[in-house]
Amino acid sequence: MKFLLVFDFDHTIIDENSDTWIVKCAPERKLPNGLRNSYQPGHWTEYMGRVFVYLGDNGVKEDEMKRTMTTIPFTAGMIDLLRFIGENKQLFDCIIVSDSNTVFIDWILKAADFHKVFDEVFTNPAAFSSTGYLTIEHFHAHQCVKCPKNLCKRKVLKEFLDKQLERGVSYTQIVYIGDGGNDLCPVMFLRKNDIAMPRQGYTLEKKISQLAQSLSPVQCSVLVWSSAIDVMSYLKVLIKD
């Protein structure tokens, strides 16, 4: 009996958006209007690439970025939840699927000593160039019309499950914990026995309830959370059963 926990990162594990938090490193802690207005829907990763160039041009170094990023607060109850999962790793496989990037997630999880809780992190690859600039790439290419160009979380989840099946691992239940619009696509992929846990008051919860109203509800069960303690309470019941 094993459960798969799938986490989003921004506004789920951490209580902020890591990509907008990095702007605290910019001169006067803000971006010029021209750069801010250059974002085009579905092309967030390209936009962040330009933000990182701007920070590099203004002499923002890796150390300063790291110091800034590791001050992001975790969501209420999340530290307790991640500790609980860490203590029960024999029952839970745990992955992150996020539109952030490898550098930010790595820094934040390692600073809080939670990196061992997660088996895999699926996010946009980032690295510092030889000139000290942070660079970012698309996670993958996909054909899904519902998702941003760089990442379809359904595709990530499906490929992960297929790979696990090849290794002889199947899950009693998948628990998907997220908040954003791009979490709807993987939630639609979940089966009757699985559970989606959208964060209360965020886009994912609203989109799931819109689907229910239009009589095309998601197949899985839905349990809304406002503190990660709600998620932990559910997991405790799950492992008792």
TrEMBL record:
<feature type="binding site">
    <location>
        <position position="179"/>
    </location>
    <ligand>
        <name>Mg(2+)</name>
    </ligand>
</feature>
<dbReference type="InterPro" id="IPR006384">
    <property type="entry name" value="HAD_hydro_PyrdxlP_Pase-like"/>
</dbReference>
<feature type="active site" description="Nucleophile">
    <location>
        <position position="8"/>
    </location>
</feature>
<protein>
    <submittedName>
        <fullName>PHOP2 phosphatase</fullName>
    </submittedName>
</protein>
<comment type="similarity">
    <text>Belongs to the HAD-like hydrolase superfamily. PHOSPHO family.</text>
</comment>
<feature type="binding site">
    <location>
        <position position="10"/>
    </location>
    <ligand>
        <name>Mg(2+)</name>
    </ligand>
</feature>
<feature type="binding site">
    <location>
        <position position="19"/>
    </location>
    <ligand>
        <name>substrate</name>
    </ligand>
</feature>
<keyword id="KW-0378">Hydrolase</keyword>
<keyword id="KW-0479">Metal-binding</keyword>
<dbReference type="Pfam" id="PF06888">
    <property type="entry name" value="Put_Phosphatase"/>
</dbReference>
<feature type="active site" description="Proton donor">
    <location>
        <position position="10"/>
    </location>
</feature>
<dbReference type="GO" id="GO:0046872">
    <property type="term" value="F:metal ion binding"/>
</dbReference>
<dbReference type="InterPro" id="IPR036412">
    <property type="entry name" value="HAD-like_sf"/>
</dbReference>
<dbReference type="InterPro" id="IPR023214">
    <property type="entry name" value="HAD_sf"/>
</dbReference>
<feature type="binding site">
    <location>
        <position position="99"/>
    </location>
    <ligand>
        <name>substrate</name>
    </ligand>
</feature>
<feature type="binding site">
    <location>
        <position position="8"/>
    </location>
    <ligand>
        <name>Mg(2+)</name>
    </ligand>
</feature>
<dbReference type="GO" id="GO:0016791">
    <property type="term" value="F:phosphatase activity"/>
</dbReference>
<keyword id="KW-0460">Magnesium</keyword>
<dbReference type="InterPro" id="IPR016965">
    <property type="entry name" value="Pase_PHOSPHO-typ"/>
</dbReference>
